[in-house]
């Protein structure tokens, strides 16, 4: 009874703690949006006056100094910070918004801009050029994150990529800085995957993204040697059998630091038996890698099956010092956009790649007869 009470109290504490953290996170996002709105408006105000020559050299330094005197203890408004606000406005104004019309701005009594007029990110005061999901993510990451991105990236789509990744992974500025240095945007795998969302350590996520290809040529799989005269008869087990006979070649195809653990690896949970086709261990990722071989086109059910394997691997096989297991589906054909859409709904790190066998290669190559005709035509 005492143990049950202790467990219940522990669970209650964990539940309340989670609720508090979630509440703080939501509150922080609201405060963050308000701060970005203010900084954007101040950046606009500073840009309009400093860029047109209305103010002399050193004006921003003077403004910063006077603000510090007027508001003792004010932080975040050094001359450098104010210049970053100007940069923030100038880099984003043409991308995010249309300009306010003269009728939308209150210039009565020739006053300086009011707080509302300065806060130009307000939905009530602005028409957006970008869609609302992008704007939500834009407003959810910190000003320092934005400056890190602006200092490293000029392409608009690339900026939104890093904003999105920062938003979903909740990277701090140091993690983001490391990601930017590694140029994740230009090193994305063509293979549909959810690694950036499901692998918590950004460095490991990048390694996984870079490691796996979107298509593998398994040209050492020879249908004739397997005793199959009709290519249509080649199923997953036949491909698997050939891979086992050529496991060294397969590992070299997959990349470095892979170690073969077994095929049809037996997993058991609550009396249910599961058998992943191929199981590897990758030293660089410090993770088990389960590979499922599928004949024909990709099917959504494959993701559910692989997710189950990974769940059991993580609870029954994975060592405490290892990273979560990774799953790869190898099929003959896949619609990448469809896979990318579906795979983001899973919490286990997974990717989907295609493969070609020796028979597939032969099918697209000209026959001996066709080659002879081509040679004769050239002669």
Can you describe what's shown?
The strands form two sheets. Strands 1-8-7-6-5-2 form a six-stranded mixed sheet, sandwiched between helices. A two-stranded antiparallel sheet has the order 3-4. Residues 1-7, 99-127, 223-234 and 361-368 have low confidence and may be disordered. 53% of the residues lie in helices and 11% in strands. The N and C termini lie far apart (94 Å). It has 16 helices and eight strands.
Short précis:
With 379 residues, this protein is α/β, with parallel strands linked by helices.
Corresponding CATH architecture of the largest domain: 3-Layer(aba) Sandwich
Q: What is the typical, i.e. mean, pLDDT?
A: 76
Number of domains: 2
Radius of gyration from the CA trace? 28 Å
Order of helices and strands: HHHHHHHHHHEHHEEEEEHEHEHH
Pick out the low-confidence regions.
1-7, 99-127, 223-234, 361-368
Gap from first CA to last CA: 94 Å
- At CATH level 3, the topology of the largest domain is Trna Endonuclease, Chain: A, domain 1
Helix content: 40-55%
State the shape.
Answer: elongated
Broad CATH class of the largest domain = Alpha Beta
Strand tally is 8
Beta content comes to 5-15%
Tell me the strand order in the biggest sheet.
1-8-7-6-5-2
Continuous helix count:
16
């Amino acid at each position: 009874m005492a143990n049950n009470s202790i467990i219940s109290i522990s669970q209650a504490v964990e539940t309340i703690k989670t609720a508090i953290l979630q509440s703080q996170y939501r509150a922080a996002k609201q405060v963050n949006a308000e701060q970005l709105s203010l900084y954007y408006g101040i950046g606009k105000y500073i840009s309009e006056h400093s860029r047109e020559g209305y103010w002399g050299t050193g004006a921003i330094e003077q403004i910063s100094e006077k603000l510090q005197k007027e508001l003792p203890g004010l932080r975040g408004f050094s001359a450098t910070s104010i210049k970053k606000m100007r940069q923030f406005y100038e880099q984003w104004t043409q991308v995010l918004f249309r300009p306010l019309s003269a009728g939308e701005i209150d210039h009565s009594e020739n006053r300086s801009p009011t707080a509302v007029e300065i806060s130009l990110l307000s939905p009530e005061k602005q028409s957006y050029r970008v869609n609302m999901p992008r704007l939500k993510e834009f407003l959810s990451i910190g000003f320092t994150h934005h400056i890190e991105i602006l200092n490293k990236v000029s392409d608009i789509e690339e900026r939104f990529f890093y904003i999105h990744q920062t938003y979903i992974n909740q990277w701090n500025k140091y993690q983001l800085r490391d990601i930017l240095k590694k140029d994740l945007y230009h090193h994305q795998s063509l293979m549909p995957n959810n690694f950036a969302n499901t692998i918590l350590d950004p460095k490991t996520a990048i390694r996984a993204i870079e490691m796996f290809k979107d298509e593998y040529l398994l040209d050492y799989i020879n249908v004739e040697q397997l005793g199959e005269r009709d290519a249509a008869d080649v199923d997953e087990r036949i491909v698997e059998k050939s891979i086992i006979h050529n496991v060294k070649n397969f590992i070299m195809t997959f990349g470095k630091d892979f170690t073969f653990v077994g095929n049809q690896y037996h997993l058991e949970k609550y009396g249910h038996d599961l058998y992943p086709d191929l199981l590897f261990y990758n030293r660089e990722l410090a993770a088990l890698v389960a590979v499922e071989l599928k004949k024909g086109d990709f099917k959504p059910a494959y993701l559910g099956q692989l997710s189950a394997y990974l769940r059991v691997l993580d609870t029954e096989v994975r060592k405490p010092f290892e990273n979560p297991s990774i799953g790869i589906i190898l099929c003959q054909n896949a619609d990448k956009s469809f896979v990318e859409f579906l795979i983001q709904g899973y919490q286990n790190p997974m990717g989907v790649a295609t493969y070609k066998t020796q028979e597939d290669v032969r099918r697209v190559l000209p026959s001996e007869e066709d080659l002879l005709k081509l040679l004769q035509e050239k002669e």
